[in-house]
Amino acid sequence: MAPIAYLECTKCGTQLTADQPRTICPKDGGVLYVRYDLAKLKTSFTAASLFGRTPNMWRYAEVMPEAEPVTLGEGFTPMLPSREYPSVYIKDEGLNPTGSFKARGMSAAVTMAKSYGLKKLAAPSAGNAASALAAYAAAAGIEAHIFMPQDVPMANRVECETYGAQVTLVDGLISDCARLVAEQKDKEGWFDVSTLKEPFRIEGKKTMGYEVAEQLGWRMPQGIIYPTGGGVGLIGMWKAFDEMQQLGWIGSERPQMISVQAAGCAPIAKAWDEGKTASEFCANASTLAAGLRVPKAYGDYLILDILKQSGGLALSVTDEELMDALKHWARVEGVFAAPEGAASLAAYRKLRISGFFSSSDTVVLFNTGSGLKYLDVIDAGKEKKQPERQPQPASRQIGGIIGPY
Ligand SMILES: Cc1ncc(COP(=O)(O)O)c(C=O)c1O
Ligand SMILES: [Zn+2]
């Protein structure tokens, strides 16, 4: 493990020590990034040194915070070559502990919470982050206080209760849950591990970027499609690419980063379309993909900047399109994806039709979770008989894409 050099604000550049639990920048509320002495690490931490290491996310120990990991074997998930599209890979995060990529972030956050001696953690969650927090908190012997929308997929609620977390179901969205955590945390002595309100969930999620590079033989794909709610994975992967370049493992090449959102809650896609650097709160957010029901991402300014820097874009897909993609992946690839993950395929289809990606472009589609966690949602979706999909002229299909290319 590496000693943390300092924590750095992504807005004003303020540097803080990591010798105590930190949340956000005290000056401007900016998200904090963990910084290591990569120039020093470069001499000893080489890509070759990974050979033979345990296949989980802690194999990148030198660029992870220095503490005894609270691990359930998260990370190093399969990079499956698509059977349908020869240049596409499906990064299957559904195989993580608790069935989603949220395990990575919570493994890192709980590891650090434990090393700081924190005893009570709290988080608002759309569902999967809650399950992951509950599991890692149980493994660490720490209390978890979880606030979830009451219409969260059943698996998330049952998991949290079974792991022994304190669960509050809220008649509202994740933003209402976040408000309740903020109101109660000081009185209750909880440390808030909300998305991007502490620096270590990014460190866990960034390992997806290391894995993409390692599993593709240290070559960058042309594109990465990532279902975006709070955007931590996208932010983390971009940070990982920067670190890998500083370590000398890759050059300056970067994938085009694509954010896919649900049409019923697409604040990032809307901001992208309007050329803005921050998003507006999406009122009446509604989608079957619970993890994408995030009306305003705290790190929206980071996500939009990354999309721009990478030459990527944000787009939205309808619930019908993502459920169609979910069934298609299951039947054609044998991958039972979460609705959020299936949005990646729906987005890829649109970007192939529009010509943004060609058949020879290597594109990694993130399936961020397992469909097994959504049996109630998927089964209910089946009952609603969808009208027969009529083939549409290409221009109308392209019209569904939000954002300039
Ligand atoms: C399966 C799944 N995919 C994607 C997301 C969105 O993740 P993020 O908030 O990191 O953008 C979530 C969030 O809950 C999720 O559960
Ligand atoms: Zn700041």
Question: How do the strands and helices of this protein lay out in sequence?
Answer:
Blueprint: E1 6-9, E2 15-16, E3 32-35, H1 38-41, E4 79-81, E5 88-92, H2 102-115, E6 120-124, H3 128-140, E7 143-149, H4 154-162, E8 166-170, H5 174-188, E9 191-192, H6 200-205, H7 207-215, E10 223-227, H8 232-246, E11 256-262, H9 267-273, H10 300-310, E12 313-317, H11 319-333, H12 339-353, E13 363-367, H13 375-383, H14 394-398
Helix pairs in contact: 2-3, 3-4, 7-8, 11-12
The structure holds pyridoxal-5'-phosphate (PLP) and zinc ion (ZN).
Describe this structure as you would to a colleague.
This protein has a six-stranded mixed beta sheet with strand order 4-5-13-10-11-12, with helices on both faces. Strands 8-7-6-9 form a four-stranded parallel beta sheet, sandwiched between helices. It contains 14 helices and 13 strands. The protein has 405 residues and is of the alpha/beta class. The chain has helices at residues 38-41, 102-115, 128-140, 154-162, 174-188, 200-205, 207-215, 232-246, 267-273, 300-310, 319-333, 339-353, 375-383, 394-398; strands spanning 6-9, 15-16, 32-35, 79-81, 88-92, 120-124, 143-149, 166-170, 191-192, 223-227, 256-262, 313-317, 363-367. Helix 2 (102-115) packs parallel to helix 3 (128-140) and helix 7 (207-215) crosses helix 8 (232-246). Zinc ion binds at residues 9, 11-12, 14, 25, 27-28, 30.
